[in-house]
Structure formats: structure tokens, C-alpha cells
Amino acid sequence: MDPYEIDFRPEFRANRGPREPFVNAHGVVIGDHDYVSATSPLEQWSKETDPSVMAGEQWVHPYKDIGFLTEENKDLFERGIAPNSGLFMHPTHSTAISIDMDDDDYFSVPEVLDEP
């Protein structure tokens, strides 16, 4: 098995996508562990580069990704154990969106967190 691949349970293998490396829209081979390509935004990064260019499914291999090696992903994808954490909680912002919520219901952000 590939070093960045885990032993997916059957329910997570269906319709995942290709097992072989593929070339994305930027000409970068995904799934070969190299990820260095002359056309990659990472190799041409500057202050003007929009980070969103590196977002999306075209940058993630469905079977071979370093993220699969985390304990949380191994628990879920290999053992079928769902994370037992609660809802996402942020220390200064309410992550709940509610129709009843007024602007006053949001947590304020202390100024010290806004300063470098």
C-alpha cells in the first residue's frame, strides 16, 4: 500500500475517484508525492497570488493524501469511528447562524487579538 494511503472501509471506497496519480488543471501531478511542477502555483507564489487557487478537490487525491494519516481520519475511514467532538466552537465568534439572532448577539473580538 502507498505510504499516504489508508485501508478504507468498504463504505468509503465507492465512488472515491482514481487510484492512480492524475494531472490537475494547473498541470500538477496529484498523488505521486512530488507535487513539484513548474506550473504549480506553489512554485510561482507571490504577494499577488490568490491562495484560493490552491483550494478544491483538484488538489486532493481521493486515496493518497497526507491528511489520511491523522488519527481522526484513520478512526473514521479505517475503523468506522466517527469523531465525538461537538460543534465547531470559536473562542471569540459565534459560529451559530440563526434567523432570531441580532447583531448584538455576536461575540465581540478583543482589540488585542486584532493587533500584530
Write the layout of secondary structure elements.
Blueprint: H1 10-13, E1 22-23, E2 29-30, H2 71-79, H3 111-114
Antiparallel strand pairs: 1-2
Name the helicity range: 10-25%
Given the helix and strand composition, which structural class is it? little secondary structure
The side-by-side strand order for the widest beta sheet comes to 1-2
Query: What oligomeric state is this?
Result: single chain
Q: Low-confidence segments, ≥5 residues, pLDDT <50? A: none
Q: How would you sum up the global shape?
A: flat
Description:
This protein is mostly loops. The chain has helices at 10-13, 71-79, 111-114, and strands spanning 22-23, 29-30. The protein has a two-stranded antiparallel ribbon. The longest helix is centred in the middle third of the chain and has 9 residues, at 71-79. The protein is flat. The mean pLDDT is 79.
Outline of the structure:
The protein is mostly loops. The protein contains three helices and two strands, in the order αββαα.
